[in-house]
Design a protein that fits this description.
2 helices, single chain, disordered C terminus, mainly alpha
């Protein structure tokens, strides 16, 4: 009866994590960037739009240390922050 639960001979096939899943920072290589980002969020009532520079720096740190896949910053939504560009528009 022990084979009663065997519904087929298919074995489990592992798959890579979904996009956005990445290794934990076990050695704290990007901890200072994370803390800076979290402080910004707390100081700004968790309005993440106000902490985009800190978020960009944190993700850059993770990519540089291979804690996440390399992605163009434009693809991550930071195209307007590259090369000193700012998301704030000047008033006319």
């Amino acid at each position: 009866m022990s084979t009663a639960m065997n519904f087929g001979s298919k074995s489990f096939q592992p798959r890579p994590p979904d996009k956005g899943s990445f290794p934990l920072d076990h050695f704290g290589e990007c901890k200072s960037f994370k803390e800076k980002f979290m402080k910004c969020l707390r100081d700004n009532n968790f309005e993440n739009a106000l902490c985009r520079n800190e978020s960009k720096e944190y993700l850059e740190c993770r990519m540089e240390r291979q804690l996440m896949a390399q992605e163009p910053l434009e693809k991550l939504g930071f195209g307007d922050l590259i090369d000193g560009k700012s998301e704030t528009k000047t008033q006319v």
